[in-house]
């Protein structure tokens, strides 16, 4: 069961962009190719409009959805949704995945996904991408697909959709399903790209997941059916074998077309009939393969040595998957099971916070790919204490099965459950159409229904009214979810250990009586328990920005506020507090414990309240606290509600005024960082994650990953010595955007941040930011992963700051042009890379430190090719202006992304942050659309000539240790 929302209004800030991005919604119709050799749809076509999704269910249908079934068996579901305005989201869900493959066809379902996008009888090679770009869709985000073990899902989000554009798009999609080009030539051309995608998967994670799947689902198809396939089967694939798989499984009776968007659903239905009714199946309709059941005779345990991962234990209690009619009582019973699992997970989290044998542990309930229903536990141990961690986790689960929880514990879980469902109801008007379409596709895949948020909430409240959540029922559910037909466990150790299999078996069978420890009894905590902030502050100035609906407020203590009352954000309020100097305030000449703040600063509490107290404080409410570091400010952020944002402000202000210094989160942060060390060197992406940011900052310690010695040196004392003065100093800017009333928001800030003592706002000049010097040959880093994997990086320095904001926005256009060319060139060069990326990164809070960076995961032999192609593209962009068509296909999707993003308050938070201290940032909002849409070929060429200089580029190659000598800088 899933649920969905209604309509949407555009904010004043979004309207500001309409005049500058409106051209992005206008596009010349693409030339339609000759229809394929499939039967033409006869008119009129009889359509069965019964609600096929709800057959066998007593859940109230969502009246916003309309349904249909065509004579050829194809089904569809359509609805109107205006979030974001003008967009239409299309999904084509094919009921086929890797579990439908034979041994010799592994990877074919995913291969067909690639080939369908490449070409069909309707469009030539690569043309679908260009058509959708002209319609404003971004390749890879707006047009994409995914293959799972049980489903292949094709996705298209059309911004500023027109009837002509939707008609053309459904025409293309119908050809992709019914008549993709599956020739030896097309298979041969796409094969290197599929193999590159397979090669670029992160080695340690894939290795562990493969071993887990083979262990948990031994004897079932899922054990050996990763969607990416095997190198052997992919190399053996040809046009005939791929077409045989397609003809067998790509049938209209296995297809569902889903559309949710800002047009008339009757139009959606008519166009679906027009383009899909003529699709006829080829050959006999095969029966679904038997996905099998958990086999208790298969080995119960397995071991793995993967240096790129910490010590991890995963366990499963498995039961056969079976179809269950999606009824009210079925969902209510599942809610009881979910509460039982959440109770155990909460106790495990409390145990982890107090220190001991494991860093993290959790329990989840899942239906796995129509192959098993399972209770899954994942444990990350402290160091090599995995056996003790497994026993400790088993002890917590055993205690939960032996003794019923208190009603207070249950009520806490129910309060959070209620908050989630109530929030979905309150924000249903602003649920995006793309999410609705995705959720419908997911419901189809797991054989369930969808319903409205209000209906789902009523089902939950009805379960509470029927007293389904009692100590006895939750105890029974706990016992039930830890029983099954087969139990499995797998352990990964970073280094070989003697007798690990016997050790795992012993830990699974050991008597864990007495190991669970005492359950935490949470004391009663409310917002009155927070430290007092003082007398409400006084407003000394209010400055409305009438054209965009934002008001700037200054309080007597120096706190500044931006309020944006956005009625389109129904039920949502975004609160952000920027304070201090961010990276500019951190030591630039030595390492510091700043890295630990992500996991320890919020968790260290407020005053005498620890993390558990803060969770109790926010139980049943939409209140949270995230921490981040920006170039020129630190920040706390949260998404809350109209009912909760005032207390959200109290929590943030109290954290700044009276921070807590609980030492337990510091120890946990240290142990977590130590556990992560092994993974960095196990793959090219791990090495980039560890080293790239520091290298691009020329070794500046503010951006370098801490070494093992620096991690080991972290203590509660030095953490507090760094962060206590940083929390207490520097200017404060509060931003409240969303479903609020301006005067009420100002009063709420006056009661909280306005009541704080004045802070010094004058900070010393921030240390400069450096870009590394040009290198004639690449900087080399090595990894310990597969010898087929490498990564290449080339970067050019740009600039930063608000003074050249137009330059920064047009650099985004240049980067996208560069990215599209690099993608096409690497595809042409024998699939050298599956997913290269090019980005312009411009720091608004610094006048230097910007860069344009191209990254590609390639084979070691193609590192030199990546650098050569990148430099050729850079040189051509600097020498020759881009064509009008190429610029249109680049700018139009970017403008549409901007327009859609602008409907969210989060977007404007990011654009206006720091604006009360630097008014130029607020003024720059007005030119956002113009700066993007007005870019000319000559301006882009001039930018490329200014920044993409061969004498300033910097290169990095991450290669296997034994292939360092093979890397060249051609």
Task: Please tell me what the overall shape is.
Answer: globular
Share of residues in strands: 15-25%
- Residue-averaged pLDDT: 93
Helix content: 25-40%
Tally of helical segments = 31
How many individual β-strands? 25
Separation of termini?
Answer: 55 Å
The chain-level structural class is alpha+beta
Strand arrangement, major sheet: 14-15-16-20-17-19-18
Major sheet attributes: 7 strands, mixed
Low-confidence stretches: 2-12, 18-41
Q: If you had to describe this structure to a student in words, what would you say it looks like?
A:
Helices cover 40% and strands 16% of the residues. It is built from 31 helices and 25 strands. α10 crosses α12, α10 (328-353) crosses α15 (471-481) and α25 (805-828) packs across α27 (884-901). The longest helix is centred in the middle third of the chain and has 26 residues, at 328-353. The two termini are 55 Å apart.
Task: Give me a quick take on this structure.
With 970 residues, this protein is an alpha+beta fold.
List the SSEs and their pairings.
Blueprint: E1 2-3, H1 12-21, E2 66-69, E3 75-80, E4 88-94, H2 108-118, H3 127-134, E5 143-147, E6 152-158, H4 163-178, H5 184-199, H6 203-216, H7 231-236, H8 239-249, E7 255-261, H9 265-276, E8 301-305, E9 312-320, H10 328-353, E10 358-368, E11 372-381, H11 386-402, H12 407-426, H13 433-445, E12 450-451, H14 453-465, H15 471-481, E13 486-493, H16 500-509, E14 539-545, E15 550-555, E16 560-565, E17 573-579, H17 597-600, H18 611-618, E18 626-629, E19 634-640, H19 645-657, H20 664-680, H21 684-696, H22 708-712, H23 716-728, E20 732-738, H24 742-751, E21 779-783, E22 790-797, H25 805-828, E23 837-841, E24 851-858, H26 863-879, H27 884-901, H28 905-912, H29 919-924, H30 928-933, H31 937-947, E25 954-960
Parallel strand pairs: 1-12, 3-7, 8-13, 16-20, 21-25
Antiparallel strand pairs: 2-3, 4-6, 4-7, 5-6, 9-11, 9-13, 10-11, 14-15, 15-16, 17-19, 17-20, 18-19, 22-24, 22-25, 23-24
